[in-house]
Amino acid sequence: MPLTALQSAFEPEPPSSVWVTVPAPRLSDSGWHEARPDGHPMREYTQLDTRLMFDDLCAKLEQFARA
Q1: Cα 14 to Cα 10: distance, rounded to the nearest angstrom
Q2: Rg (CA), the chain
Q3: Among 37, 59, 58, 48, which residue's Cα sits nearest to residue 15?
Q4: How far is CA 8 from CA 5, 15, 16, 33, in A?
Q5: How is the chain split into domains, by residue range?
Q6: Dihedral of CA 49/54/55/60: which sign?
Q7: What average pLDDT score do residues 1-24 get?
Q8: What SS3 class is residue 4?
Q9: Are 23 and 39 in contact (CB under 8 A)?
Q10: What is the three-class DSSP state of 27?
Q11: Helices (H), 1-49
Q12: pLDDT for the residue numbered 1
């Protein structure tokens, strides 16, 4: 399992991003998303810590390059 700064060891959710829980939509035959009130719960992120995500990506790439 790769290490990541996006998830705290003490918190099960990424503390630097904000999300809401919504029902998962379905994908129509034409490729569009359709509302589905009975869909399984999924996270819809409304605010992302892009600096942290980019730093995390760079750290993983450096680690991969060393391997």
Answers
A1: 10
A2: 16
A3: 48
A4: 7, 7, 10, 32
A5: 18-66
A6: positive
A7: 69
A8: coil
A9: yes
A10: strand
A11: none
A12: 40
Q: Is 14 left (phi over 0), alpha (psi -120 to 50) or beta?
A: beta
Count of residues for the chain?
67
Give per-residue pLDDT as tens, 25-57.
Answer: 999 999 999 999 999 999 888 988 888 889 889
Q: Is the per-residue pLDDT at 21 higher than 80?
A: yes
- Cα gap 54→44, rounded to integer Å: 20
Residue 56, both tokens: 């995390």
Residue 67 clears pLDDT 50, i.e. is over it: yes
Place of tokens 């892009």: 50
